[in-house]
UniProtKB/TrEMBL annotation:
Gene that this polypeptide is encoded by: hpaD
Enzyme class: oxidoreductase
Keyword Metal-binding: yes
Entry-linked PROSITE patterns: EXTRADIOL_DIOXYGENAS (PS00082), VOC (PS51819)
The name this protein goes by in its record: 3,4-dihydroxyphenylacetate 2,3-dioxygenase
Keywords annotated in UniProt: Aromatic hydrocarbons catabolism, Dioxygenase, Iron, Metal-binding, Oxidoreductase
NCBIfam families in alphabetical order: HpaD
One Pfam family cited in the UniProt record for this chain: Glyoxalase
A molecular-function term among this protein's GO annotations: ferrous iron binding
Length: 350
């Protein structure tokens, strides 16, 4: 690559296609407590309490639930030309979209990136009221901001190289002693990640994560889902991650899109931030307390649209899959590496 990459600040918004706006509104607004910036009978624009840009999540009504856009904010209008030149040199589809193509967002560059994801780069966006201290409207489960995207892609090293080309750095990864890479977490903002690369059939969206400030907000969301008899929307957790050290919860929206609620990862902003590499057989890598990862978390993810809104085919992963070497694989996972306590917690049950 001769051209320099666009100066990405952070992950900024996602657009999800949902089949039933009313059911989705009950989930994202009534349960998760996101703030509605604007809504009509086709779409709902949502933001979390610390956010002052128009939205960080768009729910758009459509027949096929899928990811429509993952958007990154760049450091200025001038970065749009840089993005356009960079992706043209990559030889992928590049489109310049005029201001207002997306409500609340200025001029943008949209690409179908080398991993098959519809990615948007923008700077200008409409400012709306920041609810940081509007404690009169914060619910007990208040979400503070969008934190990261997690994408399924078959070849993690190739995806890592592409994102390193964009100036992202790795904070943590999961590997085995043959050098297979199962996942990597990469950042531009000084936290553990803006994007996580999870080895698997792709392009698929694994999840979108919002941050809260406190663990009790996550616990309230669980209690709220129990109270409305929607506990089946709790997929995994609450728990403490090994990777990232964040306290977490995964919930599934009415269309199956996975949302993570996440708090308390760590600062990564110094140039010599140490990379943490986990052994895929370490039982505490994905849950610090050694609780098993439910199979659906490994197998299910959202389909992805191309720039014309058409569902894309997925490419299977050819390297070994994490689920195949851990869940149900007695003796292939450990709590203590000395082998004294072999066996995944589910070991004898699956
Ligand atoms: O399950 S992991 O501890 O690997 C993990 C860490 C951070 C995340 O954001 C995540 O989704 C999953
Ligand atoms: Ca077993
Ligand atoms: Fe995550």
């Amino acid at each position: 690559m001769t051209t320099t990459p666009p100066d990405v600040i952070r992950c900024a918004y996602a657009e999800l296609v949902v089949s039933d706006l009313k059911a989705s509104r009950e989930f994202y607004v009534d349960v998760l407590g996101l703030v509605v910036t604007y809504e009509d009978d086709q779409a709902i624009y949502l933001r979390a309490f610390e956010e002052y840009l128009h939205h960080s999540l768009i729910l758009r009504k459509g027949a096929e639930p899928a990811l429509a856009v993952l958007a990154y904010r760049v450091r200025g209008e001038g970065e749009l030309d840089v993005a356009e030149a960079y992706y043209r040199e990559l030889g992928v589809e590049v489109r310049r979209v005029p201001a207002g193509t997306t409500r609340g967002i200025g001029e943008a560059v949209r690409v179908l990136d080398p991993l098959g994801f519809p990615i948007e780069f923008f700077y200008e966006a409409e400012h709306v009221e920041r609810f940081t201290q509007r404690y009169d409207v914060h619910g007990p489960g208040a979400l503070s901001r969008l934190d990261h995207f997690n994408v399924n892609t078959p070849d993690v090293p190739a995806a890592r190289k592409y994102y390193e080309g964009l100036g992202f750095r790795v904070s943590e990864d999961i590997v085995d002693d043959e050098g297979t890479v199962y996942a990597a977490w990469m950042f531009r903002k000084p936290t553990v990640h803006d994007v996580a690369l999870t080895g698997g059939a792709g392009p698929r969206l694994h999840h979108i994560a919002f941050a809260t400030h406190e663990r009790h907000q996550i616990l309230h969301i669980c209690d709220h889902l129990g109270a409305v008899r929607k506990s089946d929307q709790i997929e995994r957790g609450p728990g403490r991650h090994g990777v990232s050290n964040a306290f977490y919860l995964y919930v599934r929206d009415p269309d199956g899109h996975r949302i993570e609620i996440y708090t308390h990862d760590y600062y990564t902003g110094d140039p010599d931030n140490p990379v943490i590499s986990w052994d895929v057989h370490d039982n505490q890598r994905r849950d610090w307390w050694g609780n098993p990862v439910v199979p659906s978390w490994y197998t299910e993810a959202s389909r992805v649209l191309d720039l014309d809104g058409k569902l894309q085919e997925v490419v299977e992963r050819t390297e070994t899959k994490e689920m195949d070497v851990t869940i149900g694989a007695d003796g292939f996972s450990y709590t203590r590496a000395d082998g004294a306590d072999q066996g995944f917690k589910l070991g004898e049950q699956v």
